[in-house]
Design goal:
The structure is a single chain. The protein is α/β, with parallel strands linked by helices and 216 residues long. It is 25% helix and 29% strand. Strands 1-2-4-3 form a four-stranded mixed beta sheet. The longest helix has 18 residues. It starts with 11 loop residues before the first strand and ends in a 14-residue tail after the last helix. The mean pLDDT is 90.
Length: 216
């Protein structure tokens, strides 16, 4: 996060939705996920692997939402949302999304896929916060599983920030970096003064994987 306004406070949550399923796709749990996300009481939600549509699942599960998953999760809490398709297949598509309590002035999804099997994107939103001189930029990230891919995608993220985010604009970058070796921190720290929030607050990065017993 980069904050040029010391009085600006935002609650942020990032979640890899795994298309609404539990580990190994054993159970459809999107309704429970919605309750958990709502209970967090945050201003911005960054979602990865959220489904825009899926014809097979919609016929198989009786509690499948009629709207896209990101709209279902936004519900009546987050009045604005943006979705960027990353992976498209014959029966549907999924990607990144940002849910916001503030108006989204515009957004763009940047394809940073490398190879044929991992479709990845950077979803860039510009937010209009009331009574704030500057617009807030938010980028939802989902990087690849291979370190060589992540390295190139991090450089693409750095280029995006340098070319499309003003130097004095507040910026939040969140998502699934798959960066278990923590290679991305030094690079992002040199891009416009980005700071890792958990590291700033607790002195070390958060352990988030695997979710049942986080070690990495």
């Amino acid at each position: 996060m980069r904050d040029s306004d010391p009085e600006l406070t935002l609650g942020v949550l990032t979640v890899n939705a795994h298309k609404g399923f539990s580990v190994f796709n054993r159970r459809f749990m999107l309704p429970e996920l919605r309750e958990a996300v709502r209970g967090a009481g945050v201003d911005l939600v960054f979602l990865q692997e959220v489904l825009g549509s899926h014809e097979h699942h919609s016929r198989r599960y009786s509690n499948w939402p009629a709207s896209p998953q990101y709209e279902f999760l936004a519900d009546s809490i987050w009045s604005a949302y943006a979705y960027g398709r990353n992976a498209v297949y014959p029966h549907g598509h999924h990607g990144n999304a940002i849910l916001s309590k503030f108006p989204i002035l515009h957004y763009e999804n940047h394809d940073v896929s490398l190879g044929k099997h991992e479709r990845r994107g950077l979803l860039h939103c510009v937010l209009d916060l009331p009574h704030r001189r500057q617009q807030v930029h938010a980028i939802c990230v989902h990087l690849g599983l291979r370190e060589t891919h992540r390295r190139e995608q991090l450089h693409a993220l750095a280029h995006l920030i340098k070319t499309q985010v003003p130097d004095d604009a507040p910026l939040v970058v969140a998502g699934d970096f798959n960066d278990w070796r923590m290679k991305g921190h030094p690079l992002l720290a040199n891009v416009g003064g980005l700071r890792e929030v958990f590291d700033e607050a607790h002195g070390r990065p958060a352990r988030t994987f695997p979710s049942r017993r986080p070690l990495l």
